[in-house]
Amino acid sequence: MKIEKVSIIGMGALGTLFGGFLTNKLGKKNVEFIVNKERKERFKSMGLTSNGEVCDFNLVDEEEMGRPADLLIFAVKGVDLDSAINSAKNKVSENTIIISLLNGISSEESIGKVYGMDKIVYTVAQGMDAVKIGNKFTYTNMGEICIGVTDESEDMKKKLDSVIELFDRTGLPYTIEKDINHRLWSKFMLNVGVNQVVMIYEGTYKTIQEPGEARDMMIGAMREALVLANKEGVNVGEKDLEDYVDLMDSLDPEGMPSMRQDGIAGRETEVEMFAGTVLRLGKKHDILTPINQEIYNKINAYSSHS
To answer: In whole angstroms, what is the distance from residue 184 CA to residue 202 CA?
Structure first.
């Protein structure tokens, strides 16, 4: 199947980044953002800019029926996933392929429970330094999408090929992953460190790029996630940790991860998706996770006073 129509739910940093890219390549009529009436009115009144240029996006009401997507992209925060799954229901048909750009290791399963795992092609977005505060979006690094499937059936291979063909046609940067679970867990390990620590220190990527307490905490939190990945049967190693730390060191020092942006905006954070998951898996495997416990406590204290 050739992907012609793309629907995106989520107008945060990743939704704006990839939605804007695909709109420029495929045309406004072929790329749409699924929104409720409140979001649509807010966009109309406030607008949105990307690196200073006004975004001219195609917004469609979540109640619209009869125009399902060939590709449905989830680009919301973890705390908004359940409502997004419901909002996207009119865009899913028998042939719709679904990808999730969410952080963490569980969004695909949550989406698959409702729409079927046979629609899910796994993706991990990484390497971008996108920042969206209010109605202003900026980035210098596009990053890439890592893509793969956990099911090697012919049907899933065809769906993977369809998404890859779209990426090739538009020039969207991607890497094919033979072991997508390895990439999911490696990225989760990174998020557990950088997203949470930059939020705690109210900083930017520079905070964890320089030697010191914050960088040490980031690496320590990542290493706890690494141990748990191994306990869950996924072979994440020290080389993966080092590669991701190197990746963080290459980003714009003035950029910041999404969780820090949530803190600035006073939004609910994804601490349960990161430290919360580490703590739960630590109990499951009887592994101590003191750094993530400290992070969990600090972020919840931070949120309660913000």
So the answer is: 26
Averaged pLDDT, 279-288: 97
Terminal alpha carbon distance of the chain: 48
User: In this predicted model, what pLDDT tens digit does every residue of 225-273 receive, in sequence order?
Assistant: 999 999 999 999 999 999 999 989 988 898 888 889 888 888 889 999 9
Q: What is the pLDDT of residue 227?
A: 97
- Give the distance between the most distant pair of CA atoms in the chain: 55
Where are the domains positioned within the chain? Answer: 6-176, 180-305
Does residue 305 surpass a pLDDT of 60? Answer: no
CATH classification (class only), 6-176 = alpha beta
Fold of 180-305: N-(1-d-carboxylethyl)-l-norvaline Dehydrogenase; domain 2 (1.10.1040)
Q: Which two tokens stand for residue 303?
A: 């949120």
pLDDT digits (tens, 9 = 90+) for 14-36: 999 999 999 999 999 999 999 99
Asked if 252 and 205 touch (Cβ cutoff 8 Å), the reply is yes
Q: CA-CA distance, 7 to 56, in Å (whole number)?
A: 15
Cα radius of gyration rounded to whole Å, the chain: 19
Give the three-state DSSP class for 228: helix
Structure tokens at 165: 């063909």
Contact (Cβ atoms closer than 8 angstroms) between residue 174 and residue 167: yes
Residue 246: Cβ-neighbour burial (10 angstroms; 0-12, 13-18, 19+): exposed
Q: Output phi, psi for 121, to 5 deg.
A: -105, 125
Q: Output the pTM of the full model.
A: 0.90
Report how far residue 102's alpha carbon sits from residue 14's, in angstroms, rounded to the nearest whole number: 9
Place of tokens 């125009």: 67
